[in-house]
């Protein structure tokens, strides 16, 4: 059972985007950072454990050519081995900041060269993989940036081709959970990144100085707005309300959940305990327990809890602590972050 | 965001505008032939080929200010006149209605069905005018050509673009409050029951498969809602059962049209952000706007047909009162195009601009009817 905790007010309401909440847990400093996209600006704020807001900052999308002010598509903290960077994607480019948003350390302008007149040009989908940050594009390409331990000397090291439609989300294996695909399988393949796109296609990658495409998991006519990766299992949320779990190395479907009545907008993981959170435009947030069956080692899913956020088209949801005992939710048009914790 | 959103925004808002005008014309007992003329004039201006051509070009959405200017022009495409307060209210009702429809669309693609519902109703208004009917059908074809092949992902982007446009609008509408589709805080009710989107299964099932793809386990869970599968998919053909009720005329019965201003807007900071848009952008937008409105062929009233004023409120006093008490953050600033003429060097643009008339100045008379109207305005 979960109960509503004190909400955290936002300066601006949340935009109707997917994955519109990023959380950086800093248990050592007893702080939690939240990031929400409003539209042409994104709001960062830090809060104490009871949800008391401490500091806030607004970031703007960097201007460029065009009629209207550029819109931000996503804001996300990337935890790298030696530093944490905040990444902001928009219709003009990619902005990277120090984790508190105080200093921009890198700007990459989008090259709209290949786009036809009818294509929207934007960056979307952000994830950290080792010392790389991967960012998705409207074209389906994924840019891989090499991040130094400190300083602004960030370099675009690779451009991954695997998708033909706009990237929606990218997920990487959480550092602690880095395992081989399956004990009995070829130990050479380590699937540690998955990318998803508007057609529902998933690509599974192995990171490295050069990223290698391991598997492709085809879509079925609906977008896959959100994806997670845990111990060799891909969890994907789809536009028709389904959550599907696949074996990352082979692409085999193992679990199919008719989870929501509307499009899924966010998935999150509490990797230490194997909890998965799914949120959708149907106003519901569901929490699932992932495990491996004793026979066969297949991934299994059990429903733990469902929470209705009345009259709210949820657009972002994240766990707020490593044990998955609390989570936060943002909703379209809502100027606050809703918090829930288990009793 | 998506560059394919403007036609859908324009046609649906236009449809809502016609529903409201039709109802007010009847409520105010405007003679049938006059009422029909007004609707015919507006519809034929809306679906003018040159205008539609501009509209359907891939482009970013206009600002709320710019779009409001287009509807001001459209509402005055005939012998009917609206005071500022009535025009404001009309626009409030239009925007909240379409916001509601977009929000409640089960699938992003269903916004096309909502558009078709509006077009079907528009055709009902002009049944006796084959030329205009043909124009509407042509627009239908264009919609099918452009949107028929879009993917679910592209429709999702269009939906997100529309919702960003409507963000932070919380005007309370009587008819919505009465029907319990809007809460007293201005937010729409999102039901957790009813028909599912086409292609979505009833939530509540977890199926597990082995390596060979065989189902090895099936477990139900309690999902919290009370949904049923959609009976059938709405038709995207020229004629057909749309199934979806969103976008049909909710004013066909004599329904109350009040809007509530107090406490209507939240996030004042977010609102004022919109009205202080930097000037360099405004000029670019002005160019697009001029091209769009330039394509509108507004018919000058011909013959001795006298104009009349439509009131969106029940009495003139109410209308005056509404004008005085409208909260500042909800002022729709209509773009004063003539004031920026000195910035334009383009001749063609200047010519189109010359055809614009500022709304609150008496119109240059082209006929007896206009003279009468000008005199009435000065009373």
UniProtKB/TrEMBL annotation, chain A:
Q: Which InterPro entries match?
A: WD40/YVTN_repeat-like_dom_sf, WD40_repeat_dom_sf, WD40_rpt, WDR54_beta_prop
Identify the residues that the record assigns to the WD repeat-containing protein 54 beta-propeller domain, covering every copy. 1-342
Short name of one Pfam family for this protein?
WDR54
The UniProt keywords, alphabetically, are: Cell membrane, Cytoplasm, Fertilization, Membrane, Repeat, Ubl conjugation, WD repeat
Map the WD repeats onto residue numbers: 257-291
PROSITE patterns tied to this protein: WD_REPEATS_2, WD_REPEATS_REGION
Indicate the secretion signal residues: none
One cellular component term (GO) for this entry is:
vesicle
* Compartments, as annotated in UniProt: Cell membrane; Cytoplasm; Vesicle
Q: Which GO terms describe its biological process?
A: single fertilization
Oligomeric and partner information = Homodimer and homotrimer; forms tight forms of dimers and trimers. Interacts with IZUMO1 and IZUMO1R/JUNO.
Function, please? Plays a role in the adhesion and fusion of the sperm-oocyte membrane through its interactions with IZUMO1 and IZUMO1R/JUNO. When cross-linked to form dimers and trimers, it has a regulatory effect on ERK signaling pathway activity in response to EGF stimulation. Colocalizes with the EGF receptor in WDR54-specific vesicle where it sustains the internalization and controls the degradation of the EGF receptor after EGF stimulation.
Supply the name of the protein: WD repeat-containing protein 54 isoform X1
Q: Which gene encodes it?
A: WDR54
UniProtKB/TrEMBL annotation, chain B:
Recorded GO CC terms: basal plasma membrane; cytoplasm
Q: Name one GO molecular function term.
A: transmembrane transporter activity
In terms of InterPro entries, this protein maps to: OSCP1 (IPR019332)
Q: Which organism is it from?
A: Delphinapterus leucas
- Which named protein is this? Protein OSCP1 isoform X1
An example of a Gene Ontology BP annotation on this entry? xenobiotic detoxification by transmembrane export across the plasma membrane
Q: Which domain of life is it from?
A: Eukaryota
Q: Per UniProt, what is one Pfam family of this protein? A: Oscp1
Q: What is this protein's gene name?
A: OSCP1
